[in-house]
Design goal:
Elements: E1 2-6, H1 13-22, E2 26-31, E3 42-45, H2 51-61, E4 65-68, H3 80-105, E5 109-115, E6 126-127, H4 140-157, E7 164-170, E8 172-174, H5 185-191, E9 197-198, E10 204-205, E11 207-209, H6 210-222, E12 227-231, E13 237-238, H7 239-250, E14 257-258, H8 263-267, H9 269-276, E15 280-281, H10 284-290
Parallel strand pairs: 1-2, 1-4, 2-3, 4-5, 5-7, 6-15, 7-12, 8-11, 9-14
Antiparallel strand pairs: 10-13
Helix pairs in contact: 1-6, 2-3, 3-4
């Protein structure tokens, strides 16, 4: 089918273009700047925050399916606040524009990326897609991020009877180009011994290799299924397990242990939350409904070693 990938230069978007073409689909890559665009059947240029330009670009591509992989997280190293603010705009205003453009172009399917680590820290250690999101998090920045995620999901699933929506909540991505690669921001912190482990380390992480994110997006494009799906590996793990093994795989020093009460000041609220209180995400629904399963079922076989 004709597929348009928005966010085609990102860590998932770029390989996704190639994977869809390998499956025989005709793929248009939507980018903000033509330079650096991936090899595709067509390249269309528009800023998702420019509604009229986006409507024109998507209509020209005439997609049957649209994939939303847009974020500004590439800016994290240089401007974390700006990266999160721009990503929130893309998840709200950009998603609204993309839904309108997809409908105007006659697309029948919309697949969008979300995150699997935005659940409120209550209940079981590993949660399904029905668990409430942490929209009232005590940290204003994270609360704003989660509210933007909730709005993205609402928009994608509410696109109308003629635009079937599927939301893929990716786990914490690892692999080339991610923060958890050796040269990524988190990898560098661990190598420098600057990511301590709060006492207990009971926060649960659900990881996902980039290649498995791509595979899930292909499966969702080719499926008729709608709804929200956790796309994670099969091995949710507490920080007390994954962080020391990650450091050892990288060849970095063992993480020092710090009192949990000090973690927000030393690490920032979000990372402290991830390491002490976050819940994991169960992938049963994606397996059963999308027919997808991770090719890398456990982070233990690749985190820090790709």
């Amino acid at each position: 089918m004709r597929v348009l990938v928005a966010g085609a230069t990102g860590v998932v978007g770029r390989p996704l273009v190639g994977a869809l073409r390998a499956r025989g689909h005709q793929v248009s890559a939507l980018v903000r700047h033509e330079s650096g665009a991936p090899e595709a059947d067509a390249v269309v240029v528009a800023d998702a925050l420019d509604r009229q330009a986006l409507l024109a670009a998507v209509s020209a591509a005439r997609p049957e399916a649209v994939v939303h992989q847009m974020s500004a997280l590439r800016l994290l190293r240089d401007d974390p606040a700006g990266a999160f603010a721009q990503t929130a705009r893309l998840r709200t205003e950009g998603t609204a524009n993309l839904v309108a453009a997809a409908r105007a172009a006659g697309a029948r399917r919309l697949v969008a990326q979300s995150i699997a680590f935005a659940a409120a820290p209550a209940g079981d250690p590993v949660l399904d897609e029905d668990a409430p999101l942490y929209v009232d998090a005590p940290d204003p920045g994270w609360a704003a991020t989660v509210r933007a995620v909730a709005e993205l999901e609402r928009l994608v699933l509410g696109g109308g009877p003629d635009l079937a929506g599927a939301v893929l909540r990716y786990g914490t991505l690892y692999g080339a180009g991610t923060a958890y690669a050796r040269d990524g921001g988190t990898g560098q912190r661990v190598l420098a011994g600057k990511l301590p482990l709060p006492e207990g380390g009971s926060g649960i992480m659900s990881f996902l290799h980039v290649e498995d994110a791509v595979g899930a997006a292909v499966a969702a494009v080719e499926s008729d299924a709608t709804g929200v799906f956790h796309v994670t590996d099969d091995d949710p793990a507490p920080a007390a397990q994954w962080l020391p093994l990650y450091a050892r795989t990288l060849g970095g020093p063992p993480p020092r242990t710090v009192p949990a009460a000090m973690a927000p000041r030393l690490l920032g609220w979000f990372m402290a939350h991830q390491l002490t209180a976050a819940r994991g995400a169960a992938n049963d629904r994606a397996r059963a409904t999308l027919g997808w399963k991770p090719l890398r079922p456990s982070w233990r076989d690749g985190l820090g070693g790709e």
